[in-house]
Amino acid sequence: MESPGTWETVIVAILALALVFYLRPGIKAALEKSKKTEEKDWSGVLIPIAFVVLFVIFLIMIQ
């Protein structure tokens, strides 16, 4: 597989930059909202992650 040409690299970089500018208002709002989170909100994230970790450990053990 050959490496991408100069124009392809430039186009990908421009598209990535445009995507960042397009999503910037949403990212900024999400960061502001995340600063206002309470401690009880973390259980909604940690419990599913714990279940996934336990499931992966279970899958490794039955192998």
Can you describe this structure in just a few lines?
Helix content is 78%, strand content 0%. By secondary structure, the protein is an all-alpha fold.
The helix content, as a percent range, equals: over 70%
**Class from helix and strand fractions:** mainly alpha
Helix tally equals 2
Name the overall outline: flat
Q: Mean of residue pLDDT?
A: 88
Sheet of most strands: none
Q: What's the total count of β strands? A: 0
Task: Report the sheet-strand fraction.
Answer: under 5%
Helix-strand sequence: HH
Q: What would you report as the Rg, rounded to the nearest angstrom? A: 20 Å
N/C terminus separation = 36 Å
Domains (count): 1
Structure overview:
The protein has 63 residues and is mainly alpha-helical. It has one domain (6-61). It has helices spanning 6-35, 43-61. The relative contact order is 0.06.
Descriptive labels:
single chain, 63 residues, mainly alpha, flat
Write the layout of secondary structure elements.
Layout: H1 6-35, H2 43-61
